[in-house]
């Protein structure tokens, strides 16, 4: 059995899609959802999905290695960031080499980096007059949005699209692709180990 830990700061629609995808799996289990935001929608979703939640604050995350230790002790194989808005600390990245993936709501390397998250991304894409946007699923390193790209998918953007319209199209792509790509990354881990 492979164990996933999901990190989310917001609504958690991607976290829920991933949990649904593996709900009946005998090989993969979403064991834990972690969040920095006690008001995050993902917490209600986790409760409904019967997945344990761990809330943590900035000091615990950046000034102790409690989260890293817990994930190692729980035998977590893959960390999946699903709308998690904080930078992963160096000790956590080192403890899970190529075992942390993130989804970014644009076609990296465009519209990435510090401050480029959630709705800010779609506002920037609209303001720049882009003709397409999309999603990037990538490995996580110690810098925002810079790890190796695993998968991208794009959608057209028209002159009349508002940031909300772009967000809707991008989120649809996320929900279609993220669970499947997570399954593929897990399959790669299994192959490496056997
Ligand atoms: C998603 O669109 C995800 O790509 C984005 O936050 C949203 C979370 O939605 N992540 C980032 O911007 C990370 N830099 P959700 O809570 O409904 O899954």
TrEMBL record:
Reaction equations catalysed: N(1)-(5-phospho-beta-D-ribosyl)glycinamide + (6R)-10-formyltetrahydrofolate = N(2)-formyl-N(1)-(5-phospho-beta-D-ribosyl)glycinamide + (6S)-5,6,7,8-tetrahydrofolate + H(+)
Source organism superkingdom: Bacteria
Entry coiled-coil feature ranges: none
Enzyme Commission number: 2.1.2.2
Top enzyme class: transferase
Ligand binding ((6R)-10-formyltetrahydrofolate): 58, 102
Residues annotated as catalytic: 104 (proton donor)
A molecular function (GO) term: phosphoribosylglycinamide formyltransferase activity
Site (Raises pKa of active site His): 145
Chain sites annotated for binding N(1)-(5-phospho-beta-D-ribosyl)glycinamide: 12-14
CC terms in the record's Gene Ontology section: cytosol
InterPro entries: Formyl_transf_N, Formyl_transf_N_sf, GART, GART_AS
Residue ranges annotated for the Formyl transferase N-terminal domain, each copy included: 3-182
TM stretches of this protein: none
Pathway, per record: Purine metabolism; IMP biosynthesis via de novo pathway; N(2)-formyl-N(1)-(5-phospho-D-ribosyl)glycinamide from N(1)-(5-phospho-D-ribosyl)glycinamide (10-formyl THF route): step 1/1
One example of a Gene Ontology biological process annotation: 'de novo' IMP biosynthetic process
Keywords: Purine biosynthesis, Transferase
Pfam families, per the entry: Formyl_trans_N
Role of this protein: Catalyzes the transfer of a formyl group from 10-formyltetrahydrofolate to 5-phospho-ribosyl-glycinamide (GAR), producing 5-phospho-ribosyl-N-formylglycinamide (FGAR) and tetrahydrofolate.
Family membership noted in the UniProt record: Belongs to the GART family.
NCBIfam families recorded: PurN (TIGR00639)
Name of protein: Phosphoribosylglycinamide formyltransferase
Protein source organism: Spirosoma radiotolerans
Lineage, highest ranks first: Bacteria, Pseudomonadati, Bacteroidota, Cytophagia, Cytophagales
